[in-house]
UniProtKB/TrEMBL annotation:
Organismal lineage: Bacteria, Bacillati, Actinomycetota, Actinomycetes, Streptosporangiales
Residues forming coiled coils: none
Limits of the Zinc finger CGNR domain: 149-188
Name of the protein in question: Putative RNA-binding Zn ribbon-like protein
Superkingdom to which the source organism belongs: Bacteria
Pfam families linked to this entry: ABATE, zf-CGNR
InterPro entries: ABATE, ABATE_dom_sf, Znf_CGNR
Family matches, as Gene3D superfamilies: Jann2411-like domain
Amino acid sequence: MAATAFPILGTEPPVVEFANTLYGDGDRRIDFLDTAARIEEWFALVPLDGGVTAPAGVMGRHGERVRAARDCVRALLCAAADGRGPGRAAVERLNDLAAAAPTYPRLEWTPGAAPAVRRLDTVAGAPALLGRLASGCAELLAGPEPVAVRRCPGPGCSMLFVRGHPRRRWCHPSCGHRDRQARFYRRHLARRPT
Ligand SMILES: [Zn+2]
């Protein structure tokens, strides 16, 4: 079987890539984390904040928990992108996820090198990884450097991305290309004699 093509942009913070595993709306919604195998595959492909990766065989066993966390961060990032208030339940769920996985700073400083801090987990397994994603979501929305979360306006696209510079309009240049094509065909067809 061909490898599952995930909607991974490769340019976004891990929590935004996580939110994008639910693609589309309504009847055309695709859940890219619908099986244990896909969950394992996604977590193997996307390193989380701090370069942390999931050990094999851990996340796939927590499908319901993973999808609930994904739905929660997607709801909050969509609320930010749409400029509306969040649902209270999503805020509470995010805080519960983060509270279940506190981290602590570890100073790493050796002679001749600059001091560095790594954040280490106090718990292991799925709660630690989902906690990192939840903390990443809170910091993205309200940290020292809050960012602009946007929905891609590409035809049929529902991807979220962080607009790092004002000229970025699409999740990926290919969406801009498809949009220009769609507009070209609309103009072309409108001019055709009937
Ligand atoms: Zn797009």
